[in-house]
Amino acid sequence: MSASVYADDRGTLIFEDDFERNESQETKDEIGKGWGSNSRSRAKGNKQVDLKNGAMYIYIHKVADHAVSVTHPAEFKDGAIALRFMLEDPRDSLGLNFADLKYKPVHAGHLFVAKISTKRVELTDLKTGNMELKTRELRKAGKLPAALKEKLKTKTKRFPNKLETGKWYDLVVSVSGDTLTVSIDGKKVGSFSSDGIAHPTKRLLRLAVPRNAVVDDVKIYAKSTDS
Question: Does this model's pTM top 0.70?
Answer without folding.
Answer: yes
